[in-house]
Write a structure and sequence with these properties.
alpha/beta
């Protein structure tokens, strides 16, 4: 789907009274989160359909120190053809034109990815603002965003300054994200909260609301580099923040869990969470993404099991 069909979040003035009133009951969140992966899940052809939907929501990612142009080109090839044709034919979806939601790379690999994806309609996302720690100056962060947009990135994944959350500097966080949104121009802004470093679920909720008020197009859990990345309880808090923001501001903001999501079963858990908490509108790449590198391989393996009744070796399903 094209993100232009969703009215873009314009942001709103910072409402400090609303932020100060936010409280999250950790015990209640954990009880609700525990119901997601313990209930009976979808099976058979319904599971296959949900897994195909999950593929369309993947930000296929490579953020390694040993990235090379060759690796990125192979990743882009997989992004355009995420499931082997013989499997799609057996499923009856050979003409589905299945592809992932985006390809996510470092700035230096943007041009390589843009060239490799030409004509596919798949956007290139770039991590920015001193990813993953964000410990560079504000001026450097703005320059990095502008450079990535100029190079062809249509989505920018930024990291917020975690210290602003931990010290309660909500005005500072709001202004920071506002500036990032302005620097992005037409490119969509995904704000990475690095929730594993925010101490409390209340901080996660407050930071989510502030980022959305400042104009974020997506709120994202993690860089994938923290010791604790995407979890169901954190995702529940962020999903509910997105729902509340839509209720009081009128804009639908996307959600992206990232880091540690490697199994098809996990993908189903997150899709169920989105459907139950936010509804069917959030079950598309316009409003939901997985930040993942290894997830696609396991989903493809599960789909082959569905059509053959046998599990193949994992090497038959390389990521790229």
């Amino acid at each position: 789907m094209n993100m232009k069909s969703i009215k873009r979040n314009e942001g709103m003035p910072l409402d400090l009274d609303l932020i100060k009133e936010i409280r999250v009951n950790r015990s209640a969140v954990e009880r609700r989160a525990a119901t997601i992966n313990k209930r009976r899940t979808v099976k058979k052809e319904w599971q296959a359909a949900w897994l195909l939907r999950a593929i369309s929501c993947i930000d296929l990612t490579t953020l390694a120190g040993d990235d090379t142009p060759g690796n990125v080109i192979r990743l882009c090839s997989k992004a355009m053809n995420p499931v082997r044709l013989d499997i799609l034919e057996e499923l009856g979806f050979a003409d589905l034109n299945l592809k992932v939601g985006a390809v996510c790379v470092y700035h230096n690999m943007i041009k390589t990815a843009v060239d490799a994806l030409e004509g596919s309609g798949i956007p290139v996302a770039a991590v920015s603002t001193g990813f993953p720690a964000g410990q560079i100056t504000h001026r450097q962060k703005i320059a990095e965003i502008k450079a990535s947009v100029k190079a062809g990135a249509r989505e920018i994944d930024i990291v917020i300054t975690r210290g602003k959350v931990l010290t309660g500097d909500w005005r500072g966080l709001y202004k920071e994200v506002q500036d990032f949104r302005e620097a992005c121009g037409e490119a969509h802004l995904k704000t990475i909260l690095a929730t594993g470093e925010l101490s409390t679920l209340t901080n996660v909720s407050k930071a989510s609301h502030v980022c959305m008020m400042a104009g974020a197009d997506f709120i994202k859990t993690s860089t994938g580099k923290e010791s604790v990345n995407a979890t169901i309880p954190v995702s529940l808090v962020m999903a509910r923040a997105a729902r509340e923001y839509f209720e009081y501001a009128g804009f639908k903001v996307g959600f992206k869990p990232a880091g540690g999501i490697r199994k098809a079963k996990q993908a189903l858990d997150w899709l169920i969470l989105m459907k139950e908490e936010l509804g069917d509108d959030w079950l598309s790449s316009e409003l939901f993404r997985f930040g993942a590198s290894g997830l696609l391989s396991d989903i493809e393996r599960q789909l082959e099991h569905f059509v053959t009744g046998r599990y193949s070796s994992s090497y038959r399903h390389p990521m790229a």
